[in-house]
Amino acid sequence: MKILIYGINYAPELTGIGKYTGEMGSWLAQQGEVVDVITTMPYYPEWAVHPSHKGKWWYTEKLEGVRVHRCPFYVPAKVTSAKRILHEFSFVVSSLIYWLPIFFGKRYDVVICVSPPFHLGLIPLLYCKLRTIPLWCHIQDLQIDMAKELGMIKNKRFLNIMFNVEAYILKRCTVVSTISEGMVRKVAQKNVLQSECALFPNWVDGEYVKPVPGSQSLRSELGLLPSDKVVLYSGSLGEKQGLEIIVEAAKSFVARPAVKFLIFGSGGGKCKLEALVQEYGLPNVLFYPLQPYKKLAALLATADIHLVLQKKSASDLVLPSKLTGIVAAGGFSLVSAVPGTTLYDTVSEHQMGVLIEPESAEALEKAINKALITDLSSYRVNARRYAERYLNKEQTLSEFWQKLKDVDRRNSLPSSQQSSSVSFGETQPVR
Predict the structure, then answer these.
(1) H/E segment holding residue 403
(2) Distances in Å between the alpha carbon of 174 and those of 1, 136, 251?
(3) SS3 for 47?
(4) Quick check: 177 and 138 in contact, CB under 8 A?
(5) What is the domain count for the chain?
(6) Bridge partners of residue 264, in order along the sequence
(7) A Gene Ontology MF term for this entry (predicted)?
């Protein structure tokens, strides 16, 4: 197949959507498919164009068999709702340089549009209608719902316009998929899809990210003592996580210097967290940059306790991607989740972490204290077992590939024989 992927995030970004879209593209290329990508310069989660791509304009590079078309775009130094909208639209406009010749030239067999941004599907939708080819929209975050629930956008008229644009796109897609059963339900409730929303979960390479002994962790590199207890958060430092409670909880452990809070990552909320730590004068909270993928297993082995946090209002609108790596590494997690959500039900059913109330520093403090005196080995075993059963990279992408081929094959049939139903087989909590 000739496949075009259109998305704002792509490899070599280390976290979030770019990581998964990059792995998907390279995996499809390894199966012999012809894969093109239209995307931006790598910038996430630092919200700054990576040094390797700084100063470049429109250009094409080859990454692991994939032809990647890069576009210049606006990246705000300080992320606000208004600046984020401008940031996203700048990519759409910039990407027209690649889209215009595609409209009148090369014909793809299928287009995969990765959301957010939610409005990214408008251009590929027009292209797919003109060329009569399938459009697969894959939703990693329910962006508008989250902006509304988090109070990031409060203008009701503007929100309604965005929801209408989203509905227009989703109604006309051949396939719409998302990453968890809770998000599948949220998308289905919009009542605009041609067929059932498909579950296409995120994954982890369990052969690469796996439990390793403490001697192979980053503890010695970070100057930690064998007696130190490490509470670790790694990933994007943004609004939806509500990470201020880490700093608030850390205040209670200042008199216990062996308990250290390590925060690895970048994002729009990092400066706010650093300022809060400085204001409180906390020597037990330390910040580090994101680590390269080759160090991921070592980083995850550094922690005694992992934190997987999000705000109540983000429930089932996003799914923390960091959880896949943690469970693959056999890590123990404290997870903030609301009962009835996919995240809550999965952690509870498989006993691979301890659930706490979201946005509560007191609940976090109590859970850390209890975890520090508890044998966590059963949680770690359950976590790794879950990863092996439900998060297998090869299995997940193989199923996706087969469904992608089914969609392409159906599109070549006479319209009377076509069916728009796509299923990924037996669904699991957070496959």
Answers:
(1) helix 393-411
(2) 17, 6, 51
(3) coil
(4) yes
(5) 2
(6) 234, 288
(7) glycosyltransferase activity
Res. 111 pLDDT band, cuts 50 70 90: very high
SS3 306: strand
Task: Specify the pLDDT at position 318.
Answer: 63
What pLDDT is stored for residue 79 in this prediction? 82
The pLDDT, as a whole number, for residue 153 is 86
Instruction: Look up residue 225 and give its amino acid.
Output: L
Reported as a single tens digit per residue, the pLDDT across 163-177 is 999 999 999 999 999
Q: Are residues 161 and 222 in the same domain?
A: no
Residue-by-residue DSSP string for 373-398? TS--HHHHHHHHHHHHHH-BHHHHHH
Show the beta-strand stretches assigned E in 223-290. 229-234, 259-264, 285-288
CATH classification of the domain holding 180: 3.40.50.2000
If asked whether residues 74 and 191 sit together in one domain, one would say yes
Residues 244 and 379 in one domain: yes
Alpha-carbon distance of 352 to 382, in angstroms, equals: 5
Taking residues 412-417, what's their average pLDDT? 62
Mean model confidence pLDDT for the chain:
91
User: CA-CA distances (angstroms) from residue 234 to 27, 30, 144, 295?
Assistant: 25, 30, 25, 12
Q: Are residues 276 and 150 in the same domain?
A: no
Considering the domain architecture, whether residues 101 and 240 belong to the same structural domain is answered as no
Q: How far apart are CA 99 and CA 6, in angstroms?
A: 10
Joined tokens for residue 155? 């203008």
User: What's the number of CA atoms in the CB half-sphere (13 Å) around residue 291?
Assistant: 20
Q: Does residue 348 fall inside a structural domain?
A: yes
The pTM of this model reads 0.88
**Containing structural domain, residue 320:** 214-390
The reply to whether 13 falls in a domain is yes
Measure the N-to-C terminal CA separation of the chain; round to a whole number of Å: 26
Dihedral sign of CA atoms 391, 114, 334, 236 in order = positive
Tokens 């976090």, residue?
364
Residue 11 lies in a domain: yes
Secondary-structure percent of the chain, ordered helix, strand, coil, rounded to 5: 45, 15, 40
Q: CA dist 79 to 50, 54, 75, 186, 237, Å? A: 17, 19, 9, 27, 12
Report residue 7 as tokens: 């998305």
